[in-house]
Design goal:
Blueprint: H1 7-20, H2 29-42, H3 55-84, H4 99-116, E1 123-127, H5 134-143, E2 148-153, H6 156-166, H7 172-175, E3 176-180, E4 195-198, H8 206-219, E5 225-230, E6 250-256, E7 265-271, H9 276-280, H10 293-302, H11 309-320
Parallel strand pairs: 1-2, 1-4, 2-3, 4-5
Antiparallel strand pairs: 5-7, 6-7
Helix pairs in contact: 1-2, 1-3, 3-6, 4-5, 4-11
Length: about 325
């Protein structure tokens, strides 16, 4: 058991106590300072396994992730409102302090997607796009310049702010669409998308996120790509962790854990061509050709680098380009 005598855990616990005592998580000097300290504490590579934390620290981590999610939403809403006041909001995205991180993360995700999905996707869904849908915007402007993006968020005010950002842009206003709905209520519509992105904060703990993943597995088209954001090491104090074995109904293609200021890990998976239970009951030998999720876990445990080499090479290329 890893508990509070570990210096990293003690530091995170101290910051949690300070953050949880704040009157508001809206952007302010104190909020910005504490979350900056938290991020800087969690970014350095660390072998800590959050699954081995003691119960009290596990509870603290769950609460901290929710606080981080709330603060991130308020930060994005704040800057989205500022950007929306400009005549051409997309010309001023660099006022958002984490915009460079989104540029790097979107570039990484695009390169990983290209390795596993050689055709340019016609339609992409982004689940949990929020008031500042930077991933969709960056991908649409810089990488997937003919693709249509359908952004799903449960919060109508988030979609209203997001729509304001792209209304004046002649290209993106014709390719970006916003849907205010709970993704768990979206069914056959998900069949239309070549690629579905799942935001890091959709499902604030593993159980919630796995429910969403299971729903996507039922509704997405066979062969469609699912891209998720997870966390690794100490960064798992900031975001929920998704293990490859949580992706029931999907073949995990790649898992990449960045070591720079990009916080989120990137997971890419492809929906199986038929349901897992159908594969299990095939009598023609097809089942032996498919790596089932539990076997996937065993393989990753034996060789944790088996799915990251390609992504690591992409990052090296990016750094040297």
């Amino acid at each position: 058991m890893v508990c509070q005598n570990e210096p990293l855990v003690q530091k995170v616990c101290d910051l949690y106590e300070q953050i949880s005592s704040l009157e508001s998580l809206k952007p302010s000097k104190d909020v910005d300072m504490l979350f900056t300290q938290l991020v800087l504490t969690c970014i350095p590579p660390n072998p800590i396994d959050v699954d081995k934390l003691c119960k009290k620290t596990q509870e603290m981590r769950s609460n901290l992730i929710r606080l981080c999610g709330e603060a991130e939403g308020l930060l994005e809403s704040h800057f989205s409102a500022i950007l929306g006041s400009y005549e051409n909001p997309l010309d001023h995205l660099n006022i958002f302090p984490y915009y460079p991180n989104y540029l790097k993360l979107s570039h990484l995700e695009f390169n990983i997607l290209n390795q596993h999905h050689t055709n340019v996707p016609g339609k992409v869904a982004f689940v949990g796009s929020g008031p500042l849908p930077l991933t969709s915007i960056v991908l649409a402007r810089n990488h997937l310049t003919t693709t249509s993006f359908h952004n799903y968020d449960i919060d109508p005010s988030a979609n209203s702010k997001a729509l304001q950002l792209i209304t004046s842009h002649p290209d993106l206003s014709s390719r970006m669409f916003f849907h205010t709905t709970d993704i768990m209520k979206v069914t056959s519509e998900l069949q239309e998308f070549d690629v579905v992105f799942l935001a890091a904060l959709v499902g604030m703990d593993k159980e919630e996120k796995v429910k969403v993943i299971d729903h996507l597995a039922k509704q997405m088209a066979p062969g469609a790509i699912l891209m998720l954001r997870s966390a690794h090491g100490a960064r798992a104090f900031l975001y929920p962790v998704i293990d490859p074995c949580d992706l029931r109904g999907f073949e995990v293609l790649s898992v990449f854990h960045p070591s720079d200021e990009v916080i989120n890990s990137v997971v890419i998976a492809r929906k199986y061509a038929m349901p897992i239970n159908a594969i299990d009951h095939q009598q023609n030998g097809l089942g032996s050709m498919i790596v089932l999720p539990n076997k996937c876990c065993e393989m990753l445990a034996l060789n944790p680098l088996s799915h990251v080499t390609m992504a690591e090479e992409l990052v090296v290329e990016e750094k040297h380009s």
